[in-house]
Amino acid sequence: MSLFLVFIGTFFSILNSSMVNVALPTIMIEFGIDIQSSTWLYTGYMLPYAIAMAIFGSLGDLYSPKRIFLLGVFIFAIGSLSCSIAGSFWMLLVSRTIQALGAAAVMTNSMILAITPFEQNQRSAVLGWWGMISSAGSLIGPTLGGVLTDHSGWHSIFYINLPFAAVILLLGGNYIPSPPKTNHTKIFDYRGSFYLIISLVALLLAIIIGSTSGWLTKTTLPLIGLFLLFAWLLFRQESRISQPLISLALLQNPSFAATVVVGFLQGAALFGSMLLIPMYLQHVHDFSPTYAGVLVLPLSISMMIMAPIMGKLATPPKIRLLIVSGMAILAIGIWIFSRLSLQSPYWLLAAALIATGIGLGVSSTPLTSNLINVVPQSQMGMASGLFNMIRYLGGVIGSTIFGAFIQQRVAAYIIPLTISGYTAPLAEKMALGRAFPEVFLMGAATAAIGMIAAFFTGTTKKMKNP
């Protein structure tokens, strides 16, 4: 029952994110926003989601992963309810931020709760199943989101979270076990949390504004300065105290540091590319949200199949090889997307989706397994939060840069097409058809760099408890 409840929380936090991606084109029309503005709904979710992971991971170590997990479910439910009744773009954006905070608490602590009842040699297999559940959310999300958006409106994609959240909150207190407590007292690093939030918000706002308005503007430069100042304050704080929010000793472990770097590049390649696929299918090929959701099923199916298999194969001697292979396949899959055109047969799209899903499935579970093999139990929440924070920061940065890039390329292509005599709608479609392959090339290159970084992963000796 405990695994069932934890898996439900994991499933629905992933499900809702993937449903929203399919609904974005419809939301754009209703609120009259363009592609660049629509990425704020994605960034407005991913930014607090990423930042909060490190904080909720440390809070889980301090107050128990079970308590923080259940708190996250409650916050996620409140955010979902607020999203479902949102009547404006800004209300939806704020509601998505609330939802993201709950999802961060759920995801960071669900992995720890899933592996807690099992011995060390069984945990990779459990992580494989946990990865499969996450993939199932990605699998069902686009199709279900498309169906609900077409037939009940985009508001309905948020309703379905509420009954499942209620079940977890009612049963979780009795059925979800708490990990064993450590013997030493922990103190939460409030100052480090403040420095972390300010530095990352400044960094990501600088990237968002700089990618569209320029890097040397009067707005961007102060944000970069603010980031550097608070990043330095964070580093000084974490190096001076005995119980930091982010242990610098973790990053001194070469395998852990390489795992974090690969996670960042995987997140940038994945989320930057996957955010755009539903838009590509709907704007360029004129597919409905339902059909676009069905078309991307091969990605999630292949990832869901690979996750439990990798859970069994991800033993310490094989981890490096699996991560390198997965990132290579991911790069190939995203590269195939860059070869698509309006005349491309579906099998080519399916090949791109399947290769991308296999690459993610092969690399993701070994990355997570590597964490639990080198990090002591007392720092599992911190390590999980740090890894997931940086992975999703990669997603925020990737989606922001890719979104700004495609907007710029569309603007560059649409002017000569219009001058050539094409109507405005046709010129826009043709411009999008030319711009999307270029952004997918950026995603493939990012994954390829991640493959290089993956050579430095591989399990080293487990760190001692602090």
TrEMBL record:
Q: Name one Pfam family in it.
A: MFS_1
Q: Which InterPro entries match?
A: EmrB-like, MFS, MFS_dom, MFS_trans_sf
Task: Say which domain of life the source belongs to.
Answer: Bacteria
Question: Known CDD domains for this protein?
Answer: MFS_MMR_MDR_like
Q: Where in the cell is it found?
A: Cell membrane
Q: Which residues form the Major facilitator superfamily (MFS) profile domain?
A: 2-462
Alphabetized UniProt keyword annotations: Cell membrane, Membrane, Transmembrane, Transmembrane helix, Transport
- A cellular component annotation (GO) from this entry: plasma membrane
Question: What residue intervals traverse the membrane?
Answer: 39-56, 68-92, 98-118, 125-145, 157-176, 188-209, 215-235, 256-277, 289-309, 321-340, 346-372, 392-415, 435-456
Q: Which SUPFAM superfamilies match?
A: MFS general substrate transporter
List the PROSITE patterns. Answer: MFS
Topologically, how does it sit relative to the membrane?
Multi-pass membrane protein
Single GO MF annotation: transmembrane transporter activity
Q: Which family does it belong to?
A: Belongs to the major facilitator superfamily. EmrB family.
Task: Identify the NCBIfam families for this entry.
Answer: efflux_EmrB (TIGR00711)
Q: What is this protein called?
A: Drug resistance transporter, EmrB/QacA subfamily
